[in-house]
Specification:
The complex is a heterodimer of chains A (159) and B (82).
Chain A: E1 2-6, E2 9-16, H1 22-32, E3 38-45, E4 58-63, H2 65-82, E5 85-93, E6 95-97, E7 102-110, H3 113-130, E8 133-138, E9 143-145, H4 150-155
Parallel strand pairs in A: 2-5
Antiparallel strand pairs in A: 1-2, 3-7, 4-6, 4-8, 5-7, 8-9
Helix pairs in contact in A: 2-3
Chain B: E1 2-5, H1 7-13, E2 17-19, H2 27-37, H3 39-44, E3 52-55, E4 58-60, E5 72-76
Parallel strand pairs in B: 1-5
Antiparallel strand pairs in B: 1-2, 3-4, 3-5
Classes of the chains: A alpha+beta (159), B alpha+beta (82).
Amino acid sequence: MSSYGINHCEIFVSVQGHDFNLQFEIESIKNERKNFGGLVSFLGQVRNDRDTEKELLFLELEHYPDMTEREIISICQEAKDRWELGAIRVIHRVGKLVPGDNIVLALVAASHRNEAFKASEFIMDFLKSRVPIWKKEHFEDNSSWVKSKQSDEELLSRW
Amino acid sequence: MKILYFSWLREKVGVPNEEKDIKATTVIGLIEELVQLEERYAMAFSDLKSVRVAVDQKLVQDLKTSIENAREVAFFPPMTGG
């Protein structure tokens, strides 16, 4: 868990096994930063529609412990350099998660909505393919590593 | 040097990490040295297009990147976070 106050943009990043609470995280930003104009939140959760013939039992998220948090912080710092932001808060869960469980939360507060929307899209695009996390899907009778999507990689070129 | 493996590379090599005395001075040299050792490394590194590398926890694009003075090198498939 790391927190940095750089150029008045508070960056908070946590990679954790336990769940988070959206409302609590929003309140944390509101308590730190009284005068932002808008806050964008992205909440990702485990879905169960990848393969209609098989039911996903659980997802296993493996990561590179020393590197994951640092990579997320560096993505947030890049976002802070590109747009005028008040606060960024990113929480990524790892370990065993079942359908419906929260996986990731990205909160971005800024004076104006355009910056907040852009920065949250930027952060999520880079979280998908530049942070050392890997998902394995476990079904009733087998399991397989989720393959990276070329479309996710291509999204990075828009930044 | 500490060598780490994640995801299916970890499963193919059979260990999450290991300490090895390495002669190679580049990432590609290290891969070639490992592949010579045992079949399981050859299996893990059979398709280098799907292998990503971090040297001292920094992603590197070029397999010719130096590993001299590196403390750890990690191998893993394309990342699937978010």
